[in-house]
Structures are given as C-alpha cells and as structure tokens.
Specification:
10 helices; globular; single chain; alpha/beta; four-stranded antiparallel beta sheet; binds iron/sulfur cluster
Length: 333
Amino acid sequence: MTALLQAEALSKHYEMRGGGPFGLGVRAVLRAVDGVSLAVPAGTTLGLVGESGCGKSTLGRLLVRLHPPTGGRVNFDGQDITGLHGAALKPARRKMGVVFQDPFGALDPRMTVEAIVREPLLIHGERSGGERSGGERGGGERVGAMLERVGLPASAASRYPHEFSGGQRQRIGIARALILGPRFLLCDEPVSALDVSVQAGIVNLLQDLQAELGVAMLFIAHDLGVVRHISDHVAVMYLGRVVEQAPKAALYGRPMHPYTQALIASVPALSPVGRAERRLRRARVGGDVPSALAIPAGCRFHPRCPQAMAVCREVDPALVEHAPGHAVACHLY
Ligand code: SF4
C-alpha cells in the first residue's frame, strides 16, 4: 500500500548550551526523536503509543512540519516536505489537520466557534468557504455543516468556547481540523485531557469520520486500550525511537518487544489470561524512563528490561521486520 505520509530516519535533537569556558558551547544534546522511520498509508490509522516524554508528540509535530527536523526526511503525498517553509509548505499543510490534546487551551476564548472553525479557510484563501457570518443566526453554511458532522448543533457557531464542556470543545477542535477536507489528521492525545466518560464518544467520532472521509490518521496516546480501538497499525515508541511496529492484531496478539509486553500487561483489560498472562506479569517493568539527555548505550531499554543480556548493554538493536509488517528492535529475535 502506498504511503501517504512517510518518515525516514527522522530526528529532532536540541542542543543544550552553557558549556565551555565562556558558556557558549554545547553542554548536552537532548535527543527527543532519534531516527524514526514509519509510514501511514492513505485512509488508514496508525496508533503511536509510549510513556510521557518518549517523544511521540514531538514526532507528530515533525511529521506535519509544525517543527523542523534536525535530521531525516518527511515525504507527504509524493513530495519531500522536509526543507519547505512558509508559502512553499502551505499547499501541503492545507491537506493536514491537527487535533490537539488540550481542548481548553487550543481554542481562543475571544473568538466565536464560527470564527474558530472558519479560520483555516481564511488562512488558506477560501474566503467564500465560510460564507457570510451568521452571527446569532448560527454561522456560515460550511461551518454549520461541519459542526453538525461532529455532533454539535449548527447554532453552536455563535457561541464562545467557555460555554462548552471539554468533550464539546474537542469536537470544535475536530471541526476546525477537518474544515479544509485534509487527507491527513494528526490527533495528538485528543482524549487524554477528557473525562473517561466522554473519551469513548470522541474516539468513536474520530473513527466514524475517518471511515466516512477516508482521511489518514496518526493517533497519539499513552493508553494502549484507546489506541487498539481506533488503529489499523500500531507503533510503540521508547526514548525517541520506535521499538516495535505491527498491524493491530499482531501487536496485541503477539507483542514481541519486552516494553510492548509490559505496556499491554499494565492495561488489565488487555492482559491475556493463563500462562501468557503470567509471562506478561513477569515482563512488567519498573523505574522511570531515562532522560533523553542521557540515553543509555546499547539498547536504550536495557536498564529497565527484565530480559536484558550482555549484548543489550553494548549493541543498539535495529528495527527489523520478523513477520509481514511486524518489526521489532530487540536482540531476543
Ligand atoms: Fe531487552 Fe535486550 Fe531486547 Fe533491549 S535488546 S528489549 S534489553 S532483550
């Protein structure tokens, strides 16, 4: 299947200054994203999971070029967009939508819902797209139709963000992200800030919209349970790297990397029963994720890995495909 979005050895390193005799040298390098290759085929959803601080949100922002990478390449819709900026990047960005984690901070409280949802149309020169302002009569036709598509009444257009609940605000954010009819949607932890009771509604909405509109998605979450529901493929990230990537059924049915096994074991509803359950319970890991300023040598997971061997402390395992579409970075295989 042809990839709509593809990353090759993508990196984002931050130089921490303050070293040297005059304090101008590089003191350390923070490797937030450290050589990630992945692909999102058109019309499919890739789930990206990992603990806080593993670099998954930074990776998402690199892919849609909200941040410039420091290494590697991003190809989107047949075009290398790695080095594009400003007007040159705009046509590609027009085909990309972003749903942010915080539905409270992502919406300007001074703007009406109509102005918020219509803003991307104006930025991309579709001044007729929102039609006339509907004000209290409910907003432009295109904006109103999009609000209804995300489960809000068209009359919501004339109201302000503070008048809505967290789940409703996230629906406004989704309407804004989809108003231009993008081919790719980055969903950066879109339900993490929401009550559990409304999370399923947002996930189901995104799943329905994905099927209806044929948009490809990168769905970022730290919860493997949420990702399982919505994804076709899943990539597991640890300390700036993808350590396992597979079709959903393979990843949940036969997780290979000890870190993936530990993540699955930490979600009771996902844990298998019987012998496999006992094996996964042994696989659970403790400790914190090391700092991206001091990534361990060899396999970066070795200080926490219950199956670490001598080789793991010295040799960095490559991500290798062991079954169709199922790749893992681990010396056990
Ligand atoms: Fe564990 Fe070694 Fe595999 Fe890393 S390479 S996950 S330390 S067994």
